[in-house]
Specification:
Helix content of chain B: over 70%
Distance between the termini of chain B: 24 Å
Oligomer: heterodimer
Strand order of the largest sheet of chain B: 1-2
Number of strands of chain B: 2
CATH superfamily of chain B: MetI-like
Number of helices of chain A: 8
Helix content of chain A: 10-25%
Radius of gyration of chain A: 25 Å
Strand content of chain B: under 5%
Strand content of chain A: 35-45%
Bound molecules: adenosine-5'-triphosphate, magnesium ion
CATH architecture of chain B: Orthogonal Bundle
Order of helices and strands of chain B: HHEEHHHHHHHHHHH
Order of helices and strands of chain A: EEEHEEEHHHEHEHEEHHEEEEEEEEEEE
Structural class of chain B: mainly alpha
CATH class of chain B: Mainly Alpha
Shape of chain A: elongated
Distance between the termini of chain A: 40 Å
Largest sheet of chain B: 2 strands, antiparallel
Chain lengths: 347, 272
């Protein structure tokens, strides 16, 4: 039963501000992904939680106790590093058992716990090997076992699978999710892969330039982005600058509701929320490109005013390159001054 | 090595081989032969009478044994002191940032780029005024200065090569700063450090310039004794026997190094 709360946590590196004061609450047993572009402060935040960086200000509360000034060895957190960071001069057992040895456990006790941890990550027979004799995926599994064996309150992972190939990454991610659910361990997972975040997170924290842009479930983040940054960063999005006149925006031959004051605005539309309806006589938008992704088609259609719609349809919808279609939009978001001012969802 | 293994440069390889034979193998062989020769008259290719007579003569000399004891004591003292002084410094260089760090590192290199003999002479002059000439302490200090670069540079590189994340991972599972050093950093850097210690020992054992300028005549190390014998005595065998005897410790050291350190440690120490 462990919760994590960040209150006003900020971090300066000299003149560089890596994190603006931010707040975050993570519930017991939750898996939260920190997602954001390079340099947005994900690692810094994770390292502050793990105790490897002191925050410039703010509190880090684990189960209500402030650990912001506690060194990493005294924190109930455990971290999986991107580079696995296994100790090459120790065997797999030595690596996993090291923390227990430091805690003064007796040998039989250590062996039992190490065996259990290794079987949890599917490496039962690998205890006597050295890290150099393992594959990249196996090394990360050992690194995970090394953390779990200590039964930490919070598990931290910093792009743990970034150096692995796509296939292995998907598999390990699934395994981690299974283990995490089984143990009910509160987890913070850093990634800059949106697929990764969308597929395993209970909630996603989107970060940009040392700030939290939005916190929400994958569905909320995907369908209801609260800032243009989140809208543009996650998934494909048609982001169009437009001028609103008398409660509507005209973009690429489509009239979109926008009951707000006249003036500049930004409209965001997901490609899969655009449907193309064939028109008889060269009206609407011309399809200039179709790319087949197997299950879906990605289409670019150019409207008469020069605006380009990116459209995604299921593979069986008949579309022809060069032909004309009228785009219809079932869901859109209107942003002004970096905030949502109007949103239309399909009924 | 690359040349030797490539067919096109075979003649090159033979050239190097001839060079090695003429300038290294033959002289070494000659010394060996002399060490076991009791009589060797011109123009015989091999000694005319073999035997161990000169070995027992050399081994019976008290000055040989005292020089041997001096050399061992000196090398051990220098290696130990160098470790005590340099290893913490190397760790600091590798892990901490402080003002003047790079200037300090540079000054080391500069001092070593300076002609050695001239440096030693100026130090000897300084020692003269400090009454350190002819004392064991004086020789220890000059040898210590000699090995400083090696003992700071190699271990610094070794400590630097230990990844930060590895150390942080140790902190993470509960190790204190000292335990991280003891169980992770030191074992990771150990092969290179062992190499540096061994080189310091061997280097000090065989060093002559400093030992002679600062130590002579009261402090006599094995190499100094050997030089003296070769220069002053007409019996070639004394020098030859001592040479062979002196060769043994370095051979043992190298064999030990191969066992303890493993092949790539030197490269690892110099890289990173
Ligand atoms: N030790 C440090 N000293 C100075 N600046 C730092 C330090 N660590 C991080 N920064 C700066 O803080 C900012 C955030 O870095 P951070 O490593 O947290 O980003 P990140 O989101 O993890 O990026 P990436 O996806 O590339 O890992 C960056 O501008 C970075 O340059
Ligand atoms: Mg990072």
């Amino acid at each position: 039963m462990s919760t994590l709360e960040l209150e006003n946590v900020s971090k300066q590196f000299g003149a560089v501000s890596a994190l603006e004061p931010l707040a975050l609450r993570i519930a017991d047993g939750e898996l939260v992904c920190l997602l954001g572009p390079s340099g947005s402060g994900k690692s810094t935040l994770l390292r502050i939680i793990g105790g490897f960086e002191m925050p410039t200000g703010g509190k880090v509360l684990i189960d209500g106790a402030d650990v912001a000034r506690t060194p990493p060895e005294k924190r109930p957190t455990a971290m999986v590093f991107q580079s696995h960071a296994l100790w090459g001069h120790m065997t797999v057992e030595g690596n996993v058992g090291f923390g227990l040895k430091l805690r003064g456990l007796k040998k039989p006790g250590i062996a039992a716990k190490v065996d259990a941890a290794l079987s949890l990550v599917g490496l039962t027979d690998y205890g006597k090997r050295h890290p150099a004799q393992l594959s990249g995926g196996q090394r990360q599994r050992v690194a995970i076992a090394r953390c779990l064996v200590l039964e930490p309150k919070i598990l931290l992972m910093d792009e743990p699978f970034a150096s692995l190939d796509q296939h292995l990454r998907d598999r390990l991610r699934e395994e981690v999710r299974q283990i995490q659910k089984k143990l009910g361990i509160t987890t913070v997972f850093v990634t800059h892969g949106q697929d990764e975040a969308l597929s395993i997170a209970d909630r996603i924290v989107v970060m940009s330039m040392g700030r939290i842009e939005q916190v929400g479930t994958p569905a909320e983040i995907y369908t209801h982005p609260e800032t243009p940054f989140v809208a543009g960063f996650i998934g494909d999005m048609n982001m169009m600058k437009t001028t609103i006149e008398s409660g509507a925006a005209m973009i690429g031959g489509v009239r979109l509701d926008a009951p707000v004051a006249d003036g500049e605005a930004l409209v965001a539309v997901r490609p899969e929320d655009v449907t193309l309806i064939p028109t008889p006589n060269g009206e609407g938008a011309r399809v200039r490109r179709i790319v087949n992704y197997g299950a879906v088609l990605k289409i670019e259609a150019e409207a008469a005013d020069g605006a380009v719609w990116r459209v995604q349809t299921l593979k069986d919808v008949p579309v022809t390159e060069g032909a004309f279609y009228r785009p219809t939009v079932s869901r859109h978001i209107v942003f002004r001054d970096d905030r949502v001012v109007h949103r239309v969802d399909p009924v | 090595m690359i040349f030797l293994s490539s067919r096109r440069f075979d003649f090159f390889g033979y050239g190097i081989l001839l060079f090695l034979i003429f300038f290294i193998v033959l002289p070494v062989l000659t010394v060996f032969l002399w060490a076991f020769a009791e009589q060797w008259f011109y123009p015989a290719v091999l000694p005319t009478k073999w035997g161990f007579r000169f070995w027992s003569l050399v081994l019976a000399r008290p000055d040989v044994w005292s020089a041997f004891a001096t050399s061992i004591e000196l090398s051990l003292t220098v290696t130990a002191l160098s470790a005590v002084i340099c290893l913490p410094a190397a760790y600091a260089f590798a892990r901490m940032d402080f003002p003047g760090k790079s200037a300090f590192m540079m000054s080391f290199l500069m001092a070593n780029a300076f002609p050695r003999f001239a440096l030693i002479i100026s130090i000897a002059v300084l020692f003269l005024s400090l009454d350190l000439v002819g004392t064991f302490t004086g020789v220890v200090i000059i040898q210590l200065l000699n090995t400083l670069l090696l003992m700071i540079w190699l271990p610094t590189a070794a400590f630097k090569a230990v990844s930060r994340e590895m150390e942080e991972a140790a902190r993470d599972v509960g190790a204190t700063a000292w335990q991280v050093f003891r169980y992770v950093t030191l074992p990771q850097a150990f092969p290179t450090i062992a190499a540096a210690l061994l080189m310091t020992f061997v280097w000090t054992f065989y060093e002559t310039e400093g030992a002679w300028l600062v130590g002579a005549p009261r402090i006599r190390t094995m190499p100094l004794l050997m030089m003296q014998m070769i220069n002053n005595q007409l019996v070639v065998q004394y020098g030859a026997v001592l040479s062979v005897m002196l060769w043994v410790p370095s051979l043992v050291a190298i064999l030990m190094a191969r066992r303890v350190i493993g092949g790539d440690a030197f490269a690892k120490g110099l890289g990173g």
